[in-house]
Specification:
Blueprint lengths: L8 H15 L10 H21 L3 H8 L7 H8 L1 E5 L12 E8 L2 E8 L5 H7 L6 H16 L4 E7 L6 H5 L2 H14 L4 E10 H5 L6 E5 L3 E3 L3 H8 L6 H8 L3 H6 L5 E3 L10 H20 L3 H13 L22
Parallel strand pairs: 3-4, 4-5, 5-6, 5-7, 6-8
Antiparallel strand pairs: 1-2, 2-3
Helix pairs in contact: 1-2, 3-11, 4-13, 6-8, 10-11
Length: 334
């Protein structure tokens, strides 16, 4: 049975009616021109799909980004890359299965591809820790990035995580320090670095592999400092206000691109990447190759400078000059 989102109900109702008509034509009588009726319903389904998916709210896009049938990192590696050879372990503690990575080919380019991986069912989600990496996951990612830098291999990261794992074990093994080191070291990598947000881009868990020369985002993915539910719980004291929080956070691909926080939006098929995974993977592959070709034409020194300037421009702030005490009105303290 297909997973149905709330706002997709009109489409599924029409599809159910169509399937019933095709499966049991005798129910509708022998005299009815079924072909004409089927054509009408199919046309109505297409019109409804276009209407529903062209008017998606921020919260609805978050729901699509979390769709259980949406392609995950290993799906894109299988569909968009060739000759993938996975590498394991951080050489310090363990092999975190929520973070995957290894050597691969992207078109004609040899690359290092790294990403967060979710599970499809309960068993795999436990193995992958629901896509939330431990400190050893980020240290494994950094080990692979340093290896790529040593052998002059471009780095591709695929981001799909609700956030880094917040458990006691992760805190004991210094999750914040592991992510902070990755942020620092990724700024200094001399090889081209491309990041693509393919689903959820949650908080520091996403940033831990997200410092890049170019940041791509799929049309229905999101990238945020906090989940809509977490924001709603803090600001409105009610997690049910998640839809309101999603709008306020400006976390959709369109909002992020307008703010200059991502460089390119990768289009998805109507209804989301899970409708046509192979086609989405081809589109993502072509966008990655195009951006990689552009980055490889720059000298390493220029790439590093542009990367530095890119992140220095993020955010807006005002500075207020401190007023000398002699100029203050009587009774006020500087």
């Amino acid at each position: 049975m297909k997973h149905q989102l709330d706002f997709e109900k009109p489409i599924f109702e029409l599809q159910r009616k169509l399937d019933e008509l095709k499966k049991h034509p005798e129910t509708y009588g022998m005299g009815i021109q079924l072909d004409e009726e089927i054509q009408k319903i199919e046309t109505k389904i297409e019109e409804t799909r276009k209407q529903v998916y062209s008017e998606l709210t921020a919260w609805q896009r978050v729901q699509i980004a979390r769709h259980p049938k949406r392609p995950y990192t290993l799906d894109y590696i299988r569909l968009a890359f060739k000759d993938y050879s996975e590498l394991h372990g951080d050489r310090l503690y363990a092999d975190d299965r929520a973070m995957v990575g290894g050597l691969a080919r992207l078109g004609d380019f040899r690359v290092m591809v790294i990403g967060t991986q979710k599970g499809r069912d309960t068993k795999e989600n436990i193995l992958r820790n629901f896509g939330s990496a431990h400190p050893e996951g980020y240290r494994k990612a950094l080990r692979l990035m340093r290896l790529a830098n040593k052998f002059n291999l471009p780095i591709i990261t695929l981001i799909d995580t609700a956030g880094a794992y917040p458990g006691i074990g992760a805190e004991e093994r210094h999750i914040a320090e592991a992510i902070a080191v990755n942020l620092r070291e990724m700024m200094l990598l001399e090889v081209p670095v491309l990041a693509a947000v393919i689903g959820e881009g949650g908080s520091g868990g996403a940033l831990g592999i997200g410092v890049a020369d170019r940041i791509l985002i799929l049309e229905n993915a999101y990238y945020s400092v906090i989940s809509p539910e977490g924001c709603a719980a803090i600001l409105w004291k009610d997690r049910s206000a998640a839809s309101k929080a999603a709008e306020a956070l400006k976390i959709t691909a369109r909002d992020l691109h307008a703010l200059g926080l991502v460089d390119e939006i990768v289009p998805e098929p109507l209804g989301g990447a899970h409708q046509e995974p192979a086609a989405t993977a081809v589109t993502l592959r072509d966008c990655l190759i195009k951006n990689l070709q552009e980055l490889l034409q720059m000298p390493a020194r220029e790439r590093l400078q542009r990367r530095y300037e890119k992140y220095r421009l993020f955010g807006h702030f005002l500075e207020k000059t401190r007023t000398p005490a002699a100029e203050l009105p009587p009774g006020e303290v500087a």
